[in-house]
Amino acid sequence: MIRNFKWLLLVAATFVACNNDDEVTKDANSTDGSPLTAGSADFSKYVAIGDSFAAGYSDGALFIEGQKGSYPNILASQFSLVGGGEFTTPYMSDNIGGFNLGGTQIPGYGPRLYYNGVVPTSVSGVSGTEITSKLTGPFTNMGVPGAKVIHLAFPGYGSSAGNPYFARFASAPTATVLGDALAQNPSFFSLWIGGNDELGYATAGGDSSVNPLTPPATFDAAYNNIISQLTAGGRKGVIANLPYVTTLPYFYVIKYNQLTQANLTVGGTSLISTLNTQLYGPLRSALTFLGQGDRINLLSTTENNPMLMVDENLTDLSTSLTAVLVGGGVDLPTATALGQIFGRARQTKPTDLICLSASSRIGKAPSVEIDGIASPSPTLAQLGITFPLPDRYVLLPSEVSEIQTATDAYNQTIQNAASSNENIAFVDAKAIMDKLGTPLGIVSNNFTLTSAYVYGGAFSLDGIHPSPRGYGLIANEFLKVINLKFGSNFKGVNLGNYRIQFPPSL
Question: Tens digit of pLDDT for each residue in 431-467?
């Protein structure tokens, strides 16, 4: 009996030892608890190539804390667990964001935004990053804000006449982004490029004179050139396609009927009756006479109202409108000004997408420097109210269709590159954005992310770039396809460790 008891103790001790061994070998960083592995990939020298998303741009600026949370930085932190080497980033000087020149913040380059509880607001101070400053590289995060696909192999893009973000860390003024990346002999790469090829045109309201849409043939040639060099010698990597930029929150903050009753009230007195009598009414009557009465309707005294805008697809009625107004008793100078201003004007519709950039211009006097146009009449100088919003602030349905058609072509090029190369993993970023645009969004780590502005959690305050949590989501999606393609087993990061907004002070 005693012998049996000892034998049972020995068996029990053996089971305990086995259980303890299992607990020791369980890896919390892997998908299934088994030892973490890189699979067939080699992450010892990871280089990321791309645009502002790769750089960690957020809240309308590039700044240190945003850069730290870029999806390549998150990927590199995971790769380091299986032998990934040092990952270096060309950090800005502070958390104000953007550049200064001679101690003055440069317009269009920061500072970053924060949410004051009512509206996005710029942080105070001036960026400490001098636009002419140079950093000593090389850097493995080669994300360059503003870069289009043709820019990655463009000599001189790192010069003072090129892109200031790349000029800070380019190996030479004549260097290319792709060349500097390949010079580091990467063992693994990520490439996500093409967003600016559609975004620049979209955020310019489809105004090609401000920023043209990249022709699909140009995109195809440039992208395939990049891929052929990156994959030379059997190098492995991951690439991503492009969402429709017209689904970004940037285009859904300002509504077509943005003019509230309060917006059209000054000093406690509503201006609607005056506007209808002196402007909207005469214009509608004249346009009706010309068979275009649906362009402009009277303002409502109870509901939100649409804004005035320019639609370049409309027939230009400038001369005819002037003649009809003169015939109706309007003096020639006034009728001429009305004809010039409203020849291609109409009110905004639910199918129009209003750029977030219009938010600071509605109700303001048109400026050639800011808006690309000035009013010929000092009494007709309120954008969206008495003067139509110019083309650069509104995407027409035809322009939305044009952008989506081009994006489909870009994505076909990217898909073909992934399908024809066994060493490339593919991220369907378009499908991810489509899910974020639904009411259910994407649920991860018990957090729900959507594309809703401010409160959706996925996007920053500029309405274009991800929030820190959004970048975490992107990194995890990249890791999923890397696992599938190369047999690695990264669990990814916990989105709860990433905030959705940056505070005013960092």
Answer: 999 999 999 999 999 999 999 999 999 999 999 999 9
- What pLDDT digit, counting tens, does each position of 410-433 carry? 999 999 999 999 999 999 999 999
Q: List Cα–Cα distances, 239 to 221, 293, 416, 479, in angstroms.
A: 16, 50, 11, 11
**Side-chain half-sphere exposure of 100, counting CA atoms within 13 A:** 15
Q: Please, are residues 202 and 163 in contact by the beta-carbon 8 Å criterion?
A: no
What pTM does this model have? Answer: 0.91
For residues 119-158, one letter each, b for 16 or more C-beta atoms within 10 angstroms of the residue's C-beta and e for the rest, the string is ebebbeebbebebeeeeebebbbbbbbbbbbbbbebebbb
How far separated are the first and last CA of the chain, in Å rounded? 71
Which residue shows structure tokens 């995407």?
395
SS (H, E, C) 195-230: HHHHHHHHHCCCCCCCCCCCCHHHHHHHHHHHHHHH
Go through the chain and tell me how many residues it has: 506
**Three-class DSSP category at 466:** strand
Residue 427, phi then psi, degrees to nearest 5: -105, 125
CB 43 within 8 A of CB 82: yes
Rounded distance, CA 155 to CA 338, Å?
Answer: 48
CA pair distance 457, 498, nearest whole angstrom: 10
Cα–Cα dist 360/467, whole Å: 22
And the tokens for 252? Answer: 């859904």
Sequence-distant (6+) residues with CB within 8 A of 318 are: 339, 340, 343, 344
Q: Which residues pair with 444 in a beta bridge?
A: 447
What 3-state class would DSSP assign to 270? strand
DSSP state of 49: E
Q: What domains, with CATH codes, occur in the chain?
A: 46-250+406-497 (3.40.50.1110), 265-347+353-395 (no CATH)
Three-point CA angle 494, 495, 500, nearest 5°: 155
**In the predicted model, is pLDDT for residue 105 greater than 60?**
yes
